[in-house]
Specification:
Helix content is 0%, strand content 38%. Strand 6 and strand 7 form a beta hairpin. It has one domain: Trefoil (Acidic Fibroblast Growth Factor, subunit A), CATH 2.80.10. It has 104 residues and is mostly beta strands.
Length: 104
């Protein structure tokens, strides 16, 4: 069975996580302009603040970067492409993710 798209969420410190793709071993990172990218090495851009929302979904915001004093969130558009962090808000459903346990 071929499985792709599985992400591992690891705690870095209280309320801060790192998201790593199992297949590629790349970390999810956000630069200071809000652009998402994959980093082979763990760095400060890879630190994300995890918050469990009232609806049970999780949001992930850059730990290090803000835009005009506002958090920049990991979000996907309707076609599954990443949205720039500057255009995202915590209440946008495009920034809501539902982590699931995967058994191999």
């Amino acid at each position: 069975m071929y499985v792709s798209g599985i992400l591992e969420i690891t705690s870095v410190e209280i309320g801060v996580v790192a998201v790593k793709a199992i297949n590629s071993n790349y970390y999810l990172a956000m630069n200071k302009r809000g652009k998402l990218y994959g980093s082979k090495e763990f760095n400060n851009d890879c630190k994300l603040k995890e918050r469990i929302e009232e609806n049970g979904y999780n949001t992930y915001a850059s730990f290090n970067w803000q835009h005009n004093g506002r958090q920049m969130y990991v979000a996907l558009n309707g076609k599954g492409f990443p949205r720039r962090g500057q255009k995202t808000r915590r209440k946008n459903t495009s920034a809501h993710f539902l982590p699931m346990v995967v058994h191999s």
